[in-house]
Amino acid sequence: MSLICLVLLVTLAQFFFGNAFTFSVFNAEEERPKPKPMVPQLAPPKIPEGERVDFDDIHRKRMEKDLNELQTLIDAHFEQRKKDEEEMISLKDRIERRRSERAEIQRVRAEKEKDRQNRIVEERHRKEEEEAKRKADDDAKKKKVLSGMGANFGGFLAKSELRRGKRLTGREIKKKTLTERKQPLAIDSLREDSLKQRAQDMWNCIYQLESDKFDYMEHMKHQKYEIIVLLNRIQHAQKFKKVHGKGKVGGRWK
Fold this sequence. Notes:
The chain has a two-stranded antiparallel sheet with strand order 1-2. The model is unreliable at 19-23 and 149-153 (pLDDT under 50). The protein is rod-shaped. Helix content is 79%, strand content 2%. The relative contact order is 0.03. The termini are far apart. Helix 1 crosses helix 2. By secondary structure, it is mostly helical. The protein contains six helices and two strands; from the N terminus they run ααααααββ. Strand 1 (248-249) and strand 2 (252-253) form a beta hairpin. Interacts with TPM3. Keywords: Muscle protein, Phosphoprotein, Signal. This is Troponin T, slow skeletal muscle.
């Protein structure tokens, strides 16, 4: 009924006022606020009558749950910490083992190098001892030859050089002998122990030369003494012959 009345009123308005009234009516209807959708309201659950809610029990259960979760986190933390400590200990053990292995390798290398150096030094000493022994044998042979030749050694050398067409003086003979005996030191590449051994060898050589010199001087003194004694005997015999003796010449006594 209301809708019919509304339609009649609109028709009459259009007849008197024209189409403007129609647009204003429809615009007014469009501008009306739209009704909001109906949302059903949910009622909170009703607590049964005769029962009381224990909030302390709810709080206690929540606290127990939180404590359990916290204890689980703490246990997981300590378990992870234990694993980390075990890994750290294992890492330290591996590092220490590698350090020990490296030290052992270096020790073995050092021992091998030391043995090699010792073998080199021993080989050098052996060669030096062989050379010294050879020189000592040569000197002993020369000394034996000189002792056998005696006082005629100087004359023998002089005669030998005279046969060659040149006479050498005593100083020249000494210089030639020293030149033959003098050997280069060659100590630039020697170590401290080798230098000490070379110095000891030189001292032994000097000591041997001084001993030989002393023996030669004593031998020379003895030979001079024997020569003087023989000369005195010859002179005494000649004087005795001139004064007391008569010689037999051509079967007659003078």
